[in-house]
Amino acid sequence: MSSRNANDKIALPYAEALLEYASENKLIDDINSNLSSIQNLLAESADFKVFLNNPLTATKTKKIVITKLLSNQVNGFLLRFLLVLVDRRRISLINLIIDKYFELAYKLDSITIVNISTSIALTEAQQEALINKLKNITSSQTIKLEMNIDTSLLGGFIIQIGSKVIDTSLAGKLKNMVFYLSNT
């Protein structure tokens, strides 16, 4: 078993518990917003991320920093949840727990997350047309696009829905041609 799978299995119950609490107390929008803020904070502050991931940093120190930094920014339950993660030495999995939480929350709301890599940015009209086509393909009520610009694609795009990948990129077609020609 890879460490990613092991970490997924560790993170999932925490994400489930957080979503269950948020759902029961009608705090889903509030928790979603708070978790997005925390995710942005971790993405923007490499030092904070290193601080949380450092096993040599004392638990008490991590709790003090998290409390001072986030007490006025996040829901009280979410703050206590983060402190429990520190106590259980799972705070290093916070990004994974947040990702799992959003996956579960989106499933609950019938939202499908679609990762799209393109060589250039898509216009609003192109994004809307793609969303409508993806709704038909996935039978989902709502599609959330996560756009990535990848200049190595040369043209076209790659769509990833869960584990399914649709590669319409010029680079992908060239790779398929090379594979086909090398096998004949």
TrEMBL record:
Any one GO MF term held by the record is:
proton-transporting ATP synthase activity, rotational mechanism
Q: Do you know which InterPro entries this protein is assigned to? A: ATP_synth_OSCP/delta_N_sf, ATPase_OSCP/d_CS, ATPase_OSCP/dsu
The alphabetized UniProt keywords are: ATP synthesis, Hydrogen ion transport, Ion transport, Membrane, Plastid, Transport
Q: What is its main location?
A: membrane
One cellular component term from this protein's GO annotations in UniProt: membrane
Origin superkingdom: Eukaryota
Instruction: Note whether Membrane occurs among the keywords.
Output: yes
Q: Identify the SUPFAM superfamilies for this entry.
A: N-terminal domain of the delta subunit of the F1F0-ATP synthase (SSF47928)
**Where does the protein end up?**
Membrane
The cross-references to PROSITE patterns, in alphabetical order and at most eight, read: ATPASE_DELTA
| Pfam families with a match to the protein in the record | OSCP (PF00213)
The record's section on Gene3D superfamilies has: N-terminal domain of the delta subunit of the F1F0-ATP synthase (1.10.520.20)
Q: Which family does it belong to?
A: Belongs to the ATPase delta chain family.
NCBIfam families (alphabetical): ATP_synt_delta
Q: What is this protein called?
A: ATP synthase CF1 subunit delta
**What gene is this protein a product of?**
atpD
